[in-house]
Amino acid sequence: MAALSGDVASIIWLQRGEPDPITHAAYLALIEQVVAADDPTAMLYLGDMRHEAGGDEAVDFTRGEVAGHAWQIAACRRGLDCAAGSALMDQFCMAGMCAPSDLEAYIRAEVARRGGDVDQLDAAVDSILALFPTPPRQHRR
Fold this sequence. Notes:
The protein is an all-alpha fold. 51% of the residues lie in helices and 0% in strands.
C-alpha cells in the first residue's frame, strides 16, 4: 500500500524482489526520487537493487563492484542508524554477517578483504552525497 502512495523506499523494496533487473534509465529515475525524498532507508534498498549497466560516465557511482556498497554507506551518513547494536546491524547478523562495528566499517573491511578498491568506494560515496543539497539529518533511533 505504501508503494502505491509513492513511498520511494517501498517502491524500491518491491522492485528489488523482481527477477529481472530494471533498466539503467529506470534506475536513474529512482535515484532522483531517492534524492528528492532524502530517505536513508530508500538509499539502503537502492544499494541492493539489480539494474542494467549504463554507459553514462557522469554517473559512475551507479556502476561497478562498489556502487551498491556506496549507497549503503551514504544511507548511514544521511541518517540511517547503522551503529553497532542497531536494528540494522542485528538484521545483518541474523543473515550471517555479524560484525562488532558499524555498517560502514563492516562494508569497508569486506571490500578490502575481497580485494576491492576502497578508494573507488570512497569516491562513489562522495559522489552520492554531493547529490543532496542539504546536510544530513541526525541518526534515527
